[in-house]
Every structure is written in structure tokens, then in C-alpha cells.
Amino acid sequence: MIDVNVSVSGIIMCCDESLCGLALGRGYTIEKCKFDTLFFKDKITNGRGQLDTDYFGSRIIEDGNVFFICINKNEVIQIEGSNFSTFKHVATGNDFMCEDKLGQYMEKEKKFLYEQINLLRLFKSGNIGFRDVFFHCSFHEMGIISNTIDHCIHNQTRNTIESGRFTLSEAEIVSCNQWLNDYCNAPYALLKDCIDEFSWGLEQIDIPTGFEQYTTALEMTLLPQNQPGKKQMLANRISAMLGNTSAEIQQLHQKVLNFYRFRSESLHEGDGSNITDSELHNLENITREILKKCLIRCKIEHNLNSNITWNEIKDMIMNDLIAQVTSLKNAGVLPT
User: Which residues contact 248 (CB under 8 A, 6 or more apart)?
Assistant: First the structure.
């Protein structure tokens, strides 16, 4: 086995220094870093030293200095060294790079970081995400061969035109840390496909496409596959889950039916005029609240049965909603 010194860093886009109070776990810290000190500075500037324009909106400028909010991690990992018995004649430099083994490590870190970003996106609104995550790995083979690997995972995980920053109050920092701790790993994995659909909607710069993704996320979460009469059923279930009073339930029911009409006009008639920024953010928030409730349910059910699947939990949620909707119909709150 050989020791590898690993540094991981990347700019968290569109946020402020309130995120420095978050504890991501897995050895990561969130820090306010001066631009000139970043080990990957040359990777996000051009030949003249000018910053890539994608990062402009994430700058914090103080007294003429530029700062960013970054994730940072430094650790030593152990990997198997090169298998010299497989070298038939002459070993080249590539044989000593251990890229496959380090690639597995980097892929795991990427999945963890994107899970954290998705959980933050569920916690509250804000155009948070990464563009690049940088890895710097250094190690010695046979005690004498010094190797360095620099790698960048480039994956635009934010909306490139949305300007809303992700910020947290002091009280939200406490509750957000609890949220990240409670719903990472197993609960998140159970609901991951639905969360990914929601997150994909957040990243769209085309309003009708974002609208479509949110609707799909809701259908995936609350409806059986290939369900006929989706509009009415989804409107019933969303209003039953989120409405607290008869008036709220009826308003939500009509709002979801309107959303379906807007989507139909956009998809089938090419008229997306009714899908405004306001309507898009309204549907975003509805989708977020539904997913949060389902994620909480995933944790509860997983604590009771660690082998449970999402389909089993979804069946429980749908059965509960059938009973709720029936009760609301009998009470005259929802249409029969």
C-alpha cells in the first residue's frame, strides 16, 4: 500500500459566508478563501490571468480583494501500488500513476459532494452548486518515484443565469446542519431519482423545461407509473399533503390544475407565455416541500426497516394520500 496526499477544493457558486458554519462531514470544511491563494487559480483564469466569467457572480469583493466560498479537504489515503509483475518489458510513467484507483476515490467524493448540494437545494431555495471540483494528489512509488496527479471534475450543477444567492441565517445554520446529518446516505439514496429530477429542473435556463422537470419530479414521487387522469390525481394529492385549511387545499388544487394547463399549452401549442418566473418558482417551492416530506418519511421507514425500498415507501405514501383525499372529498373540500 502507498500513502497518497490528497487535496480537494472547489468554489461553491452563488452563496455567501454564512455557509462557513455548515458541517458537511467526511473531512470537508467550508471556508472563505482569497482568490490568489487557491491552488487551482490557474485552472479558472485565462492566459492573461483573468477570471472565467462563470465565476463572476460568486465573487465576494472586500477592500479590493476577491474571495470565494470554497469546500476544502486535505487527507492521506492508502491505495495499492502498481503491480510490477504485470510489466512485461519496460514500465512507463503511466504505469506508476495509479489513475484507476484514484479515479474510484474521486468518483466517491464527487457523489458525496453532489449529494450535499442536493440536500442544500431541498433545504431552501438559492442557486447553489459547483462548476468545477479540483483534486491534487501526490505520492511516491517504490519510495523514490514521485508522482502528482491533478484532476478536475467539471459539471455545471447550477443555473447559469439565475442570480438568487443561497444564504442562511444563524438559526438556519443550526437547522441546516441537522438536516444534512439526518437525511444524508440511506434516506437520500431512497429518494435520489426524484431529487435528481428536481435538481435537473433547477439547473435549466429555459423556463418551460424547468417547469416540465418539476412536474415530472412530482409525478415520479406521488403517482403510479403510466397513471391515467394524472392532472386531477396529482392536484388532489399535492393539496392534501401541503394544505392546512380548506381554503389552502382548494387554492393548491386549482393551482396545480393551472400548472398542468400551462405545461400543455407550452408542450403542445408552443405557447409558454403563462409560465412566468413567478409561476416557475411557485412550482419549484411546491416540489421542494413535497420532496422534503417524502424524504422525512424515507428516514422514518428506513429506521424501522433498513431493507425497505423506495417503491415500498411510495406505496405507503400513496395509500395514505388515497385515504386523505377520500376524506376531503367526503367533507366537500375537494371535488368528487
Answer: 239, 242
CA 151 to centroid of chain Cα atoms: 22
What residue has cell string 458525496? Answer: 112
182 residue type, one letter: D
Contact yes or no for 75/27 (Cβ under 8 A): yes
- Per DSSP, 205 falls in state S
DSSP element (H, E) containing 200: helix 186-202
Write the DSSP string, 236-293. HHHHHHH--SHHHHHHHHHHHHHHHHHHHHHHHH---TT--HHHHHHHHHHHHHHHHH
Residue 5 to residue 18: CA distance in whole angstroms: 29
The model's pTM is: 0.90
Q: Where do the domains of the chain lie?
A: 2-154, 185-330
Residue 56: what are its φ and ψ, rounded to 5°? -55, -45
Confidence of residue 268 (pLDDT cuts 50, 70, 90): low
Distance CA 303, CA 305 (A): 6
Alpha-carbon gap, residue 280 to 262, rounded angstroms:
11
Q: How many residues would you count in the chain? A: 336
Q: Which residue has the cell 438568487?
A: 164
Summary mean pLDDT of the chain = 90
